Each structure stands twice: as structure tokens, then as C-alpha cells.
Amino acid sequence: MAVTPIAPDAPDAGVDAGFAAGLDVAQAAAQAGALNAALAAALTTASRELPYPDGRPGRFLDAGAVTELAQRFGLAPRRVEIAALAAAICPLRYARNLRAFTLAEQARLLGSKAALIGLGGLGGGLLENLVRAGVGVIHAADGDVFEETNLNRQLLSRLDALGRPKAALAAERAAAVNPSVEFVATAAFLDRAGMETLLTDAQVAVDALGGLKDRGALVAAAAGLGLPLVTGAVAGYTAIVATVLPGAPSPADLFGGGGTGPAAEDVLGCPSPAVMAVAALQAAEVIRLLAGRPPALAGKALLIDLETMRFDTVAL
Amino acid sequence: MPIDLKCYATLAPLTPDNASAFPLKDGETVRALAERLTIPVDEIKIVFVNGQAAELDRVLADGDRIGLFPPVGGG
Question: Which residues form the THIF-type NAD/FAD binding fold domain (chain A) (predicted)?
């Protein structure tokens, strides 16, 4: 089963702006060229040379310069970062990604979109990872508000935010950590149609739902759009992470509606280390896909027991 | 050579003491093994044997590495 190819959208926003102003194609192209030349010159002026920790020479652009150039050129901040990366200038905030992602992969991340369903325990950890990695567009949904029982594991929950929508806290966190990420959160529980809308134009669907009830709808929505789905779930110190390609078996399918008794997570709970570990493992897979690399867990499930620290990768 | 058996989540308390070297009966299937250990078969949603998903009717062999996984949905 092929994964939908990931094509970062064009960095020369000047062309679109030209059309919006009613210019013809030649004028728009000329204007875009002039804009790109002016931006390239400004990027060189605003950036500075520094060595990477391994001694390689590097050129870096700090967050203040990204904001200033975005305002000066009327561009979204991530467009400035993509242009910088194309000129071998690394936004300073990504400098410590070093060789984990190439500059081209970093640009590709900034040109990508992830759809994140759920902003609770898994979703909060995933959002943190994806925002810091510089995933350019993240559309998320969760209709819940924070309550005190979330505090044991949910990164976005705070004592002073009880009763507030998870979507609102997520938006605040994303903006505070990385304003280059275009984050849109919907404060609603989505049905399959709503999920399909959220997943439109994304390259990866991310399952951060709690419980098994809605997971089948998300598997169907992602498959219908031809998107890979990165899924994870926890009960106590047991966890599962998997990547589901369209039409392939998913843990949600295998679990069905659950067992005959109470759900495992309602018996064993959702402790923070298990939730954070799964969110991090899902994030690694999501970022790998958005960077244009093949998934590591396609057709497989990673079964985890943190009690014994045993990890098994199983072909489904 | 005995089998290595791993029971996850709510199935973990039913793990036998000698799970890492559990003696198999001749021709025993996953289902028969689970019934012998009073593990509720309806709760087993993923069976894996030597890193591959398997059916409950899979006949086990000495040295097999087996995992029994119930439905897990928390986040």
C-alpha cells in the first residue's frame, strides 16, 4: 500500500499575493522574483555565522529575526523559515535537531500538515513534540475541558486551567512555544465527517483519542482519504503504538468495541510515563512521515510493557 | 524446550510464575494454553508468536515466544 506522497507547498507566496492583487502572470512572477531576491538578501543580513556543536560551520536565524522578516515581507513566519532553510540558514530554534533532520527535511516539516485528533494525554505530548519539531500546520480537535483527574498525565492541563477547553490551552501552548506553527484547534468531538474535514490536505492522521469508541471512525476517515494513521493507546504500564496504512489492519479493528468487562484503562489507569512514552513514540513516527521518510511501524504494532521494559515489534 | 509467555495489561495477573520457561503440552494451541491458565479467551485481541500476529488456533511449538494482548484504549 503506497503512502500518499508529501509535497511541501510552494515557498514563493509572492506569486499568490500577485494574483490576489489582480496582476497578470508575468507581473506576478516578476514581483515574486523581486520579493525572493529581497528576502534572500534580508535573510543573509539578519542571520549570523556560528559553529554547530560538532564544529561544522553554520548560519542561523533567531526567532526575533523570523518575526521581523515575516512582518516586513508580509509572509507567514514559517515561510520565512522555509526560505532561510533553502538558503542553508537554519532557524536557531531547530539548530539542535542537528543531523536528526537535514535542512531540507526541516523545510519539508515546515511545509507539512498533521491532523491531530484528541488533545488529552497523548494529544498534549504529541502537540509538544510536533510544535517543537516545526510541523508547519497542525489542525487538532477535542471537545473536552480540563478536569482535575487529567492532572496526573495531561501536559496541557494545569490547576489554574480546570474547566477550560483543551483546544484553547493547546492553542496557547503552540503559540507560546513556536509561533511559526500554524495551529488551529476545534473545540468539538468529531464524527467521521468532521474527522474527514480535519484530515483534508494533511499528510498524516494522528490518533490521540481516549477510549476505543471513536477509533474505528478515525481509521475509516484516514483510509478514505488515503492517509497513513499513527495510533497509540495505553492501559497502566502496557501500551501499543502502530502505523496503519489505508486498508491495512489496525489495533482498533483487532480490539473491536473492547472486551466483555470494563475497559483495561478503566481498571489499570493511564499513568504519565506510559502516556508520555507513547506520545513520544507516535511523534517520532509522525515526524518521520512528514519529513518524507518511510514509516517504521507500517503493518506492525509496537507492544510495550514499561513494568518489565519489554518492547516487542509485531507484524499484524 | 519450554515457551516464553507474556500477558499484557489486565491479563498480566494471570501470568504463571514460570512464564519465561513455561512447559507446553503436546499439540497445545494458544486457545488451549489460555484455557489451562484460566485466561479469558474473549479478552485476547492480539496473539503474537515469534513476532508475528497469530490465531488462537495456532499450534504452539517448544521455544515459541508468545504474547497475549487485551483491548487497550486509554490516552
Answer: 94-315
- Asked if pLDDT for residue B45 goes beyond 70, the answer is yes
**pLDDT higher for A132 or A267?**
A132
In tens, the pLDDT along A51-62 reads 999 999 999 999
Letter string b/e over residues A218-253, b meaning 16 or more CB atoms within 10 A of that residue's CB: bbbbbbebebbbbbbbbbbbbbbbbbbbbebbbbbe
User: Under an 8 A CB cutoff, do A233 and B8 touch?
Assistant: no
The C-alpha of A272 sits at a distance from chain B's nearest C-alpha, in angstroms, of 10
For chain A positions 82-121, those within 8 Å of chain B (CB to CB) are 118, 120-121
Nearest chain B alpha carbon to A150: B75
User: What CATH number has the domain spanning B4-69?
Assistant: 3.10.20.30
* pLDDT digits 0-9 by tens, A189-245: 999 999 999 999 999 999 999 999 999 999 999 999 999 999 999 999 999 999 999
pLDDT score of A313 more than 80: yes
A187 SS3 class? coil
Return the pLDDT at A2: 42
Residues A180 and A216: their CA atoms lie apart, in Å, by: 33
| Structural domain spans, chain B | 4-69
- Domain assignments of chain A as residue spans, ordered by start: 13-108, 112-315
CA nearest to A238 within chain B: B9
